[in-house]
Design goal:
By secondary structure, the protein is of the alpha/beta class. It has helices at residues 9-29, 41-48, 59-70, 92-103, 115-131, 146-162, 179-187, 208-220, 243-253, 271-276, 309-315, 347-382, 408-425, 452-469, and strands spanning 139-143, 169-174, 195-198, 224-231, 256-261, 285-288, 301-305, 386-393, 396-401, 431-435, 438-444. The strands form two sheets. The protein has a seven-stranded mixed sheet, with helices on both faces. Strands 8-9-11-10 form a four-stranded antiparallel sheet. The termini are far apart. The structure holds pyridoxal-5'-phosphate (PLP). The site of pyridoxal-5'-phosphate has 12 residues, from helix 6. InterPro entries: Aromatic_deC (IPR010977), PyrdxlP-dep_de-COase (IPR002129), PyrdxlP-dep_Trfase (IPR015424), PyrdxlP-dep_Trfase_major (IPR015421), PyrdxlP-dep_Trfase_small (IPR015422).
């Protein structure tokens, strides 16, 4: 029994070294490991199901169990050949920051309880504000991810534009918008009839004429349009909605413009991305997800709002048991700016990573992801078996394996079969999505450690699988 949960300094060090050794080995061996690995629920139940342990075990035994049954059973989203969904190409400094923050058990809710961390968060948010060219009034905070950032932003938009829930209000976005936006609206109490999902144009972007027409129609029917959600990089194809035009339009029409840049916004660090994201500096709120293309461990999301006071207007509540933390004007209590009171010190991850590597390294790392998708597109275009469905954009390319004389439904199935076989083999992880009703393959190439060889070998592997299935 150890009722104080006490460990000696030697024990703590020894255990810590074991953990560090494991992480370092994992990172170093990653390119040679299979990307995918999964066991069945029954296998894992056998390995891990047990009654609540009455007595403690040796650390060694626990770590061994983790090696055998837990960390060996994950898909490696940080693997250089993980191209599915949105990869999570984290970095070691971010992981160390997470360890430090929990080692010191920082309560990042109030200035009184953690003024140093609050200042780090303020500085880091300010850096991001500057990266996106937002004005000095802008601010924000770190949250758990893009879903929470979108929820936070939409709560603010509703508060500022409508003063709270409103039966008649309507909100607009393209059919390429991430499902977390719909979920956020659902949580906030919006009904289906209040949500307008507008068919995207041929480049998968929100078309302004259709948006305008829908808003006019809704107004003429007594509805209250209040918010447009734009994509700063759709998950499906990397398409960017026309941010500059949308910002002008929303400004004229008195609508809130939220941009979901969860995965795509960091492309601002590259020359190409900066051009594509023109207008992002004019949005009212912006979601970014440092645990995607800013290379941080989960869970690191961030929400920025053009006027940070709007966050406070939306979320600040002062109960009697928190009177002591109210603080002075300059003392930021991040719990007043979002949903969480108790919050971990997520900002430290990005702050330490920026300090350690410098923004110049991040610029190169992001540009590399964009170049890798271009390499993929070039490789695909050189082979007669592939159709490129959407070109390389912000590190995403979509395509189909298309043998001659095959009907569309069979071609759809073929894409799925290729992915299934890739998952079984474990060489690389890719995923499908559906565009205009057709199943396509998709590569998201944002890992800075991915090589051209990784890309070419992955495409070759998929081509070989496609040919084997159809005995070409
Ligand atoms: C465009 C976009 N928005 C929002 C999200 C949700 O982010 P999270 O998974 O961090 O909650 C994602 C996730 O992939 C995304 O790609």
């Amino acid at each position: 029994m150890n009722e104080k949960l006490h460990l000696t300094p030697e024990e703590m060090r020894e255990m810590g070294y074991q953990v560090v050794d494991r992480i370092v080995n994992h990172i170093c061996q990653l390119p040679d490991k299979p990307v995918t690995r999964n066991s069945s629920p029954s296998q894992l139940e056998k390995a891990l199901g047990e009654p609540l342990p009455e007595q403690g075990l040796d650390f060694e035994q626990i770590i061994q169990l983790l090696d055998e049954a837990v960390f060996s059973q994950i898909m490696h989203l940080d693997h250089p050949r993980f191209f599915a969904f949105v990869p999570g190409p984290s970095n070691y400094i971010g992981a160390l920051a997470t360890f430090l923050a929990s080692g010191f058990n920082v309560f990042a809710g109030t200035w009184l309880e953690a003024s140093g961390p609050a200042q780090i968060e303020r500085v880091t948010v300010d850096w991001i504000v500057q990266l996106f060219g937002l004005p000095k009034t802008a601010g924000g905070l770190f949250v758990s991810g893009g879903s929470m950032a979108n929820l936070t932003a939409l709560a603010v938009a509703r508060q500022v534009k409508l003063g709270g829930p409103s039966e008649n209000s309507t909100v607009y976005y393209s059919d390429q918008t991430h499902s977390s936006v719909e979920r956020a609206l659902k949580i906030l109490g919006f009904r289906r009839e209040q949500i307008r999902s507008i068919p995207s144009d041929e480049a998968f972007r929100l078309p302004l004429p259709e948006l305008e027409a829908q808003i006019q129609k809704d107004r003429s029917e007594g509805k209250q349009p209040f918010c447009v959600i734009a994509n700063a990089g759709t998950t499906n194809t990397g398409a960017v909605d026309p941010l500059e035009t949308l910002a002008e339009f929303c400004n004229q029409e008195g609508l809130w413009l939220h941009a979901d840049g969860a995965y795509g916004a960091p492309a601002i660090l590259s020359d190409q991305g900066r051009k594509q994201l023109k207008g992002i500096e004019s949005v009212d709120s912006l979601t970014i997800d440092p645990h995607k293309w800013l290379f941080q461990p989960y869970d690191t999301g961030c929400i920025l709002v053009r006027n940070s006071q709007h966050l406070k207007e939306t979320f600040h509540i002062l109960p009697e048991y928190l009177l002591d933390v109210e603080g002075k004007e300059q003392e930021v209590n991040f719990c007043d700016y979002g949903i969480e009171l108790t919050r971990s010190f997520r900002a430290l991850r990005l702050w330490m990573s920026f300090k350690m590597f410098g923004i110049e390294s991040f610029r190169r790392a992001v540009s590399h992801g964009i170049e890798m998708a271009e390499t993929a597109e070039e490789t695909l275009r050189r082979s007669p078996y592939w159709d490129v469905v959407s070109p390389a954009q912000l590190g995403v390319v979509t395509f189909r394996f298309v043998p001659d004389s095959m009907d569309e439904v069979t071609i759809d199935k073929l894409q799925q079969q290729i992915v299934n076989r890739m998952i079984q083999e474990g060489f690389a992880m890719i995923s499908t999505t559906v565009l205009r009703g057709r199943t396509v393959l998709r590569l998201c190439t944002i890992n800075p450690r991915t090589t051209k060889e990784d890309i070419r070998n992955t495409i070759q592997k998929m081509e070989d699988i496609g040919k084997t299935i159809y005995k070409i």
